[in-house]
Design a protein that fits this description.
Elements (H helix, E strand, L loop, with lengths): L1 E3 H5 L8 H11 L2 E6 L6 E13 L7 E6 L6 E5 L9 E11 L3 E2 L3 E3 L2 E3 L2 E3 L33 H4 L5 E5 L10 H11 L13 E5 L5 E4 L6 E8 L8 H9 L9 H11 L3 E5 L7 E6 L5 E3 L5 E3 L5 E4 L4 E4 L3 E2 L12 E7 L2 H10 L5 H8 L6 H16 L2 E4 L2 E4 L6 E6 H8 L5 H10 L3 E5 L2 E6 L9 H12 L20 H15 L3 E2 L5 E2 L1 H4 L22 E2 L4 H13 L5 E11 L9 E11 L17 H14 L6 E5 L6 E11 L2 E9 L1 H7 L4 E7 H6 L16 E10 L4 H11 L4 E10 L8 E10 L8 H19 L2 E2 L1
Parallel strand pairs: 12-23, 13-16, 28-31
Antiparallel strand pairs: 1-11, 2-11, 3-4, 3-6, 4-5, 6-7, 6-10, 8-9, 14-22, 14-23, 14-24, 15-22, 16-19, 17-18, 19-20, 20-21, 25-27, 26-27, 29-30, 31-32, 32-36, 33-34, 34-35, 35-36, 37-39, 37-40, 38-39
Helix pairs in contact: 5-6, 6-9, 7-8, 19-20
């Protein structure tokens, strides 16, 4: 929320600079995003008066204007605005000036006619288009008649003011108003804000004769309304427009602007209905009915939910309560009678309605955080009186009440010793009492016990801890002494599970993968992809966005989103891994899902980028990723044989390039290529992925002593080429070689695969290098030959191999 420094000065005697004030607010109350001056960076923009104008000789829409900018001679400026008119005072950017966007204005020619500057619209000097009044949206802006020619325009537009942008936390909804910030600054600087309270000038006619209200107290604990007749709709005075656009609100007209002004000033959302557009004389606050629709003021049609609160007349909804009014009851130029709604709605219902309808407004923001329940009538009175003064309306007598209750202050007890104990201070009774009084709280003292009466303006305070926080921030966090903790200390250490998880990240990073961190929340469709087990989904009751509705049950979908993000930005070579939790539920009836640690990887393009090699032929394939997974599992020192078994059970994976991963017969994950149709849906290139159950890997027995000294004795190699059926896998061959290879078989390496036309049909040739080594002595050829012959015989007998 942006608050003008000059607006705060109306209520407080502020003797510090705007930037110092912003820093004080940040240190004592809430975060301040920025302190800015709208005119900063702009120069040589002055008040000018158009003395005369004539059509451009070579254009049907340009006008050649003679403008008085305070110099001895008139300045000739070419202007194409449709509303340019002689005799009006305008914004003039002189040659050499800087306007919005740091654009420099130069003396130039427009279709052959000299133009000494520029006549500006509001958005051209830095105003956001969202706050420019509609009457000036398509043309230049006319300054007031009392503007002095040749002077800078900034004071006439409020651009010389400073704007303090406060980022209000959910617990400090009271600071979503100028009065709330003024009260807080009054406490900080030990001042009593000079807040003005309205005195309403009413006519004899009773408002209760005009309208009746029916409000469900569960939906609207407080609902009140004032009626103002005979209003004249017109633009608001400039002072009001300046206050609004400096706060980021577009001025509309003198009735709507009043409701927005009261919102900013008091923090109480109001809504103004055109009473003549309301059917009947009864206004209701109720739940929406099945099948009802409402077109809101932003001209969007909403299908109402039966849990949405609406304001309705006898026939239809006329507003989405606490969020936005309906187009069917909006204030327009023909409005003469206004019904002013001032209410308190149940915060949770407003929040859910705003989320369901994807409609978050200034009003819903305040109702969600709470409003001053004791100030509902005062806000309605202030709005009615302003409409009387600015729109010439007649305020009908009395406030019509649909629901209400006696708002009582909260009473909290606390002792001085408790405050000093928590804060580590040595404050006196009088110091703490003075702080409570500065905050506007009522306080009585019985010994060292304070009985504090908290007004309705601070609805965030309920318990003693809240009072301790108030004392700390008003006293000054920087004044609280700093102390180091004392007592015995212990040396921190990671658990075995933490060590293994950290080692997992180190291993995959050493293998060329980069860590990614994805959202644990995803869509329902993506949550159910790449499933390693059956599970019910876990849905959020009130998701913030449609893309984050369900807890993930796999890691791969998040990685594919990351791959897609990179591919969309022309990064084709992506190698990522992620370690995190997935969430499983055995049935829909389970309240909370179980959490499981998984680790997954995704590689697209080249793992090792070599500009000298053809990227297409050097791209990642199944075997390269399989090697990464094998190396990862070996580095974790898990006991047991690793087995890859071809599968087609994953709908999102390529059926011919996917394998389940088993360790000693236990399923731990899968590996393979993402199905081309799924890759197309994600808008990614060919990608290979794996996902492992890290919890299962952690529980498996480990071989903690992996060290093996390098043998000083030479090794001996033997090569063997086999002609086998195409159905025989490399894993089957390796199993037989290791089974009969003998004690000195060190390693087996597949170095060639041949499947050509010179081979018999259905056959393939596999060539292996077997390495033998005795760590304690030099091997002889006879020892190696005996072991090698056993391997060959086994391959022939068990696999039907033909030794080539």
């Amino acid at each position: 929320m942006k608050i003008a420094y000059s607006w705060l000065q109306e209520y407080l005697d502020i003797q510090v600079s705007p930037k110092d004030l912003g820093e004080k607010i940040e240190r004592s109350s809430v975060e301040v995003d920025s302190v800015t001056q709208p005119s900063d960076g702009l120069k040589k923009i002055v008040v000018g008066k158009i003395m005369s104008m004539e059509p451009h000789p070579d254009s049907d829409h340009l006008q050649v204007c003679q403008v008085d900018v305070g110099d001895d001679d008139l300045s000739q400026i070419v202007c194409g605005a449709p509303n340019v008119a002689a005799g009006r005072k305008v914004i003039v950017a002189l040659p050499g000036s800087r306007i919005g966007g740091n654009v420099k204005i130069k003396r130039s020619k427009m279709r052959g006619v000299v133009s000494n500057g520029m006549i500006c619209a509001l958005d051209e000097i830095g105003f956001s288009k969202d706050v420019v009044p509609k009457e000036w949206a398509d043309g230049i802006y006319f300054l007031p008649e009392d503007a002095k020619i040749g002077e800078p325009v900034f004071p006439y537009l409020g651009m010389d003011d400073y704007l303090i942008d406060v980022d209000v936390t959910p617990n400090r909804g009271d600071m979503l108003s100028v009065y709330g910030v003024a009260r807080d600054l009054g406490a900080i600087y030990a001042q009593t804000p000079k807040l003005n309270h309205p005195k309403v000038e009413e006519v004899a006619t009773a408002a209760a004769d005009k309208v009746t209200i029916e409000a469900d107290e569960k939906l609207a604990p407080i609902y009140k309304m004032r009626i103002v007749e005979n209003v004249k709709i017109q633009p608001s005075p400039l002072w009001l427009q300046i206050k609004l656009w400096n706060a980021g609100v577009r001025p509309i007209n003198n009735v709507v602007d009043v409701t927005n002004y009261i919102l900013l000033k008091y923090g109480q959302p109001l809504h103004a209905f055109d009473y003549d557009k309301v059917s009947g004389s009864t206004i209701k606050a109720r739940y929406a009915q099945k099948g009802e629709k409402l077109t809101t003021l932003d001209e969007a049609e909403h299908d109402l939910d039966e849990k949405d609160i609406v304001i309705a007349d006898d026939q239809k909804p006329i507003a989405l309560a606490g969020v936005m009014g309906g187009l069917n009851s909006e204030i327009d130029d023909q409005t003469t009678t206004v019904a002013i709604e001032s209410a308190v709605f149940t915060p949770t219902l407003i929040r859910k309605t705003a989320q369901r309808q994807n409609l978050h407004t200034d009003a819903s923001q305040r109702f969600e955080r709470g409003v001053n329940r004791g100030g509902v009538e005062e806000a309605a009175d202030a709005a009615a009186q302003m409409m009387h003064e600015l729109a010439g309306g007649d305020v009908l007598k009395g406030i019509v009440t649909g629901s209400s209750y006696d708002v009582k202050p909260v009473v909290v007890n606390i002792t001085l010793s408790r405050i000093n104990h928590i804060l580590g201070t040595d404050l006196s009774l009088d110091q703490v009492k003075a702080i409570f009084k500065q905050l506007g709280f009522g306080v009585t003292l019985d010994g060292e016990k304070y009985t504090v009466t908290v007004p309705s303006t601070r609805w965030d305070i309920h318990i003693p801890a809240d009072l301790v926080e108030e004392v700390a921030r008003i006293y000054g966090y920087d004044k609280i002494p700093s102390t180091l903790p004392s007592g015995p200390t212990t040396v921190g250490a990671l658990t075995e599970k933490q060590k293994l998880m950290r080692d997992s990240r180190h291993v995959l990073e050493s293998l060329g993968l980069n860590q990614a961190i994805s959202y644990a929340l995803t869509t329902d469709t993506k949550a159910k992809q790449f499933m390693m087990r059956e599970s019910a989904e876990t849905h959020l009751s009130w998701p913030m966005t449609a893309d984050h509705t369900t807890l993930r049950m796999n890691m791969i979908s998040g990685l594919l989103d990351d791959v897609a993000y990179n591919n969309a930005r022309r990064v084709k070579d992506v190698a990522l891994y992620e370690q995190g939790r997935v969430f499983y539920k055995d049935s829909e009836d389970e309240v909370r899902p179980s959490e499981h640690e998984h680790i997954a990887g995704a590689v697209s393009g080249q793992l090792v980028v070599d500009p000298l090699k053809n990227a297409k032929h050097n791209a990642i394939d199944f075997y390269q990723l399989k090697g990464i997974v094998e190396k990862y599992l070996n580095n974790l020192a898990i006991k047991g044989d690793i087995e890859f078994v071809a599968t087609d059970q994953y709908p999102e994976m390529h059926p011919g390039r996917t394998a389940d991963i088993f360790i000693h017969g236990h399923y731990v994950g899968f590996i393979g290529q993402v199905h081309p149709s799924v890759a197309e849906a994600y808008k990614i290139n060919q990608t290979y992925v794996f996902e492992l159950d890290l919890d299962a890997l952690i529980e498996m027995p480990k071989d903690m002593n992996q060290f093996e000294p390098i043998s000083k004795y030479p090794s001996i190699t033997r090569d063997v080429a086999l002609l086998v059926d195409k159905s025989v896998t490399n894993a089957q061959v390796l199993a037989q070689i290791h089974k009969r290879g003998g004690a000195y078989l060190k390693s087996v390496h597949l170095f060639d695969i041949f499947d050509g036309k010179n081979l018999p049909g259905g056959k393939q040739s596999l060539a292996y290098t077997l390495t033998y080594q005795n760590p304690n002595a030099t091997l002889t050829d006879d020892e190696v030959n005996q072991a090698f012959e056993k391997v060959q015989k086994t391959l022939v007998s068990e696999l039907g191999a033909e030794i080539r």
